[in-house]
């Protein structure tokens, strides 16, 4: 009850704050050179969702690290136990061999003694050799044969028996040591097992406490997004009002194309000393007012008319819009954009980032990933875009992975503009989304600093005014200046020297994955250099915006910073659409599919279409046992079925894009299963390779939402 009261009070306080501040001017990630930071109070509220997401990711990363440590210890214990048993078996065999050799020597010695043949062995050795034969002197055979054997083999047999005895004792000692090691490893695994159980309980409690807060924070974030949309519109309307007071009618785009041939009364608009094509300026009462073309103004107006409309994959309106659909509608009828972002890039003149103006088309992506997103530029480092992560057409910050700015009013480029080739992973980063999961592959993956040289510092997601984004975008590792910094996995280097980082190494690992290493005291690599996992790339320092020696380490997917800890813990990570943590998706972001089951909304829509087709074939709806699985539920399942369940925080059930089916589909080669194999792809659902018959883990019942056919 007390917890519920605290949440209620928090919600009321934040709601009151929203009412008081009305429509504050703010941005998620303002650039100091282009906009003013938002009021601190608004920043705190806006970051509450991000902070909760970061906290959830940290809990998951900690549990992943603990689980991996336990799994490794368990494997070590199993290997140690196997080694101990093998050593004990070898020692037993060796003991038997030594006993046999000693018995043979005893027989020979007994024969020699009975036959009166002189022996080279002393009395002590003779007694030792006779011990295993005792009263079995009947084994002595033919006298003449014994005399012959004794003459040539007695000493050799004595040496053989002694060597066998020595080897037996050595192997016995080795077996004892390995048994002790096995017992120690088993004890360590047992202790770590208890720690994992406790960590699981802590994680479950922590996530349970966050769940309601996350829903509240998500609702507040939506309110703040609406406020941001309205503020941007108000600023745009203020500009249009200012332009009206100049009594300048916005000219056609063709008139403003060449800044050296502008109509009388208009002057070039300059940015950093260079004239901007496609735009002009006019001086009024000592002020310089930007004059945009009629076509660009219309494009921005049309873009604003779409703000708030729901997002839909590849949708072109009028009710839903995909990212390209929103940009296309904005610029119609002046021009019709191609049907792929990569095809947009070659058709329109690119302009320098310093000259971006409202109405420009902003394309996001990278050389290693391809182009994945498009928006319509505004001032203040913002743009209007259909954003899958936010589920709507929104005003948002221009992301870090801005590839180019295009100005449709300038026409085709004078020089060919070749887009980067799209990779198979490009779809995962579409329209402002972050990949639901990312596997860095089976290659080497290591920590950026050697073991024992660092501490765990400021975590990802911590809020504060010292960061331009308002929150910490990486993981800090305090360490002594000069400590070697290593590439976590292979990639291509880019060296930069931004003010905040001093010396920065960025490594592009391909397919949208990038790592950053900041504040270095020394850089040991060069631009374009190929590096491998564990290779030294520099040394820890305190350059740039730093409060002391440390490594600031970042992982970025498609240009978006994500929590590095799951990557470091597992060598792969699930990062989540909308920035949410796996198993921590707010209820308001999920859609019902019946029977209390929930999925991500696009997956839910496709599922309902698929179950309709299935019903037409079999007369009943799809039988489903599991869909979205909270992190708490994942932990519970993992505790009960560790060999079957995915590591908590990595399951696609935790993203709301996986289902477990029954009713015949849960068995291979049934009519129901074969129907799914033949038709599920038409609705964007697939049976993953690992779940196929004969695969790593046979699960005919498990199906995942993949790439929609319409995308």
Quickly name the level 1 CATH class of the largest domain: Alpha Beta
Helix content: 25-40%
Shape: elongated
CATH overall fold name of the largest domain: endopeptidase fold (from Nostoc punctiforme)
Tally of strands: 27
The whole-number mean of residue pLDDT values reads 81
| CATH-derived architecture of the largest domain | Alpha-Beta Complex
Low-confidence stretches: 1-47, 134-149
Biggest sheet record: 7 strands, antiparallel
SSE class: alpha+beta
Instruction: Quote the beta fraction.
Output: 15-25%
Number of domains: 4
For the termini, the CA-CA separation is: 46 Å
How many H/I helical runs?
A: 12
Cα-atom radius of gyration: 36 Å
Query: CATH superfamily membership of the largest domain, which one?
Result: endopeptidase domain like (from Nostoc punctiforme)
What does this 3D model show about the protein?
The protein has twelve helices and 27 strands. The strands form seven sheets. Strands 11, 13, 14, 15, 17, 19 and 20 form a seven-stranded antiparallel β-sheet that branches. A six-stranded antiparallel β-sheet has the order 4-9-5-6-7-8. The longest helix is centred in the first third of the chain and has 103 residues, at 143-245. It folds into four domains: 58-117 and 145-199; 248-428, Alpha-Beta Complex (endopeptidase fold (from Nostoc punctiforme)), CATH 3.90.1720.10; 462-574, Glucose Permease (Domain IIA), CATH 2.70.70; 587-705, Muramoyl-pentapeptide Carboxypeptidase, domain 2 (2-Layer Sandwich). The chain has helices spanning 2-21, 40-115, 123-130, 143-245, 253-256, 294-306, 323-331, 341-344, 565-570, 601-618, 631-640, 671-679; strands at 267-271, 274-284, 287-292, 349-351, 361-366, 370-377, 382-387, 392-397, 402-407, 438-439, 475-478, 484-486, 491-496, 504-510, 513-518, 522-523, 530-531, 536-539, 550-557, 560-562, 572-573, 590-594, 597-600, 624-626, 658-661, 685-686, 702-705. The chain has 711 residues and is of the alpha+beta class. β22 (590-594) and β23 (597-600) form a beta hairpin.
């Amino acid at each position: 009850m007390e917890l519920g009261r605290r949440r209620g009070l928090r919600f009321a306080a934040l709601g009151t704050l929203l009412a008081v501040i009305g429509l504050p001017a703010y941005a998620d990630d303002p650039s100091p050179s282009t906009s003013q930071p938002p009021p601190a109070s608004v920043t705190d509220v806006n970051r509450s969702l991000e902070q909760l997401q970061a906290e959830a990711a940290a809990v998951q990363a900690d549990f992943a690290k603990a689980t991996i440590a336990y799994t490794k210890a368990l494997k070590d214990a199993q290997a140690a136990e196997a080694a101990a048993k093998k050593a004990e078996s070898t020692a037993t065999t060796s003991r038997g061999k030594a006993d046999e050799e000693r018995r043979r020597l005893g027989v020979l010695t007994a024969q020699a003694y009975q036959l009166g043949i002189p022996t080279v062995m002393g009395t002590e050795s003779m007694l030792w050799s006779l011990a295993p034969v005792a009263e079995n002197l009947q084994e002595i055979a033919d006298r003449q044969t014994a005399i012959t054997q004794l003459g040539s083999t007695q000493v050799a047999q004595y040496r053989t028996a002694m060597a066998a005895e020595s080897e037996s004792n050595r192997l016995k000692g080795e077996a004892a040591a390995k048994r002790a090691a096995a017992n120690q490893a088993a004890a360590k695994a047992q202790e770590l097992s208890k720690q994992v159980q406790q960590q699981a309980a802590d994680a479950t409690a922590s996530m349970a406490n966050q769940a309601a807060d996350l829903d509240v924070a998500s609702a507040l974030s939506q309110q703040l997004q609406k406020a941001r949309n309205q503020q941007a519109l108000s600023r745009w309307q203020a500009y249009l009002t200012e332009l009206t007071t100049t009594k300048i009618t916005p000219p056609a785009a063709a008139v403003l194309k060449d800044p050296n041939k502008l109509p009388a009364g208009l002057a070039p608009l300059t940015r950093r000393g260079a004239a901007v094509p496609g735009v002009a300026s006019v001086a009024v009462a000592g002020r310089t007012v930007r004059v945009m073309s009629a076509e660009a103004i219309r494009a921005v107006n049309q873009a604003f008319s779409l703000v708030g409309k729901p997002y839909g994959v590849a949708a072109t309106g009028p009710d839903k819009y995909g990212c390209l659909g929103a940009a296309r509608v904005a610029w119609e009828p002046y021009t019709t954009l191609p049907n792929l972002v990569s095809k947009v890039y070659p058709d329109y003149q690119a302009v320098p980032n310093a000259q971006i103006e409202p109405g420009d088309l902003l394309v996001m992506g990278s050389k290693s990933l391809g182009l994945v997103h498009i928006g319509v530029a505004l001032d203040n480092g913002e743009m209007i875009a259909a954003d899958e992560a936010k589920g709507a057409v929104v005003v948002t910050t221009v992301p870090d992975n801005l590839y180019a700015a295009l100005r449709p009013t300038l026409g085709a480029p004078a020089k060919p503009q070749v887009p980067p080739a799209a990779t198979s992973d490009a779809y995962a980063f579409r329209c402002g989304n972050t990949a639901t999961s990312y596997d860095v592959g089976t290659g080497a993956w290591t920590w950026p600093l050697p073991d024992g040289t660092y501490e765990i510092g400021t975590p990802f997601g911590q809020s504060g005014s010292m960061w331009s984004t308002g929150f910490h975008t990486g993981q800090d590792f305090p360490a002594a200046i000069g400590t070697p910094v290593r590439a976590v996995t292979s990639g291509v280097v880019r060296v930069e020297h931004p003010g905040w980082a001093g010396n920065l190494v960025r490594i592009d690992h391909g397919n949208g994955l990038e790592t950053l290493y900041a504040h270095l005291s020394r850089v040991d690599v060069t631009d374009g250099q190929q590096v491998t996992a564990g290779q030294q790339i520099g040394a820890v320092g305190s350059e740039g915006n730093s409060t002391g020696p440390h490594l600031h380490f970042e992982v970025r997917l498609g240009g978006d910073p994500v929590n590095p800890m799951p990557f470091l813990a597992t060598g792969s990570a699930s990062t989540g659409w909308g920035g949410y943590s796996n198993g921590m998706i707010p209820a308001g972001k999920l859609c019902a599919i019946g029977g209390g089951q929930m999925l991500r909304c696009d997956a839910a829509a496709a599922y309902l279409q698929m179950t309709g087709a299935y019903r037409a074939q079999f007369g009943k709806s799809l039988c489903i046992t599991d869909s979205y699985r909270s992190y708490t539920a994942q932990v519970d399942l993992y505790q009960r079925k560790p060999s079957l369940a995915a590591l908590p925080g990595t399951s696609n059930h935790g993203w709301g894009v996986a289902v477990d089916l029954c009713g015949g589909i849960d068995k291979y080669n049934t009519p129901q299963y074969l129907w799914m194999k033949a038709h599920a792809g038409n609705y964007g659902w697939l049976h993953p390779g690992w779940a196929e018959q004969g695969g790593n883990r046979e699960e005919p019942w498990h199906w995942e939402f993949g790439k929609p056919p319409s995308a």
